[in-house]
Design a protein that fits this description.
By secondary structure, the protein is an alpha+beta fold. It is built from four helices and eight strands.
Length: 182
């Protein structure tokens, strides 16, 4: 069941990270899958306000799986943080994602990065902002496209500060409009 905020509640800006590194039998390449996921989000009352460029990134931790295509979007929705996360998981399942092993290759990955400035930590449940966002170039660099002035609501760090603190071994590059890497 979809949980909605009260009609008088002001919708907070929501930041989502999208990623894929496997070909989808239904949607095609990772970029085509991510574009289809944007449509699936809109169909569930999660409307995109801004979106980053697509980036190609090596798996974290480094492995022999294919590189990912990643991006970040800013969205608006009447859904609560918990309901938003539930919708993200439902869309992943519809697109063929089966969760078996952490950091495995996937046809689609949708993460709730931030829900306004809310800080939520439910034991065994939702954690917002995403607990590993500050350690991931594939989140921070696309996030800079969407919200360059964003600060982490727990640490107070700016995007530039978090990017400067990233491990140097994370490989990431923008994808051109034609879908090739720059």
């Amino acid at each position: 069941m979809t949980q909605l905020l009260s009609p008088n509640a002001k919708a907070a800006p929501i930041l989502l990270a999208l990623g894929a590194n496997l070909i989808s039998e239904r949607y095609g390449t990772p970029i085509e899958t991510l574009e289809a996921a944007l449509g699936a989000l809109a169909a569930r009352d999660i409307g995109t306000l801004q979106r980053s460029r697509w980036f190609e990134s090596a798996p974290v931790p480094i492995s022999d799986q294919p590189w990912y295509v990643n991006g970040v979007i800013s969205v608006q929705s009447p859904l609560s943080p918990e309901a938003t996360l539930s919708v993200l998981h439902d869309i992943e399942a519809e697109f063929g994602r089966v969760r078996q092993v952490r950091n495995e290759a996937r046809v689609l990955d949708l993460d709730l990065i931030a829900y306004g400035n809310q800080v939520i930590e439910q034991p065994g449940g939702i954690i917002v902002p995403h607990p590993r966002l500050a350690d991931r170039a594939f989140v921070l660099l696309p996030l800079r496209d969407v919200a360059p002035d964003w600060h982490h609501p727990v640490t107070g760090l700016s995007l530039d500060q978090m990017i400067a603190g990233l491990p140097k071994d994370q490989m990431i590059r923008p994808v051109s409009a034609s879908g090739s890497t720059l």
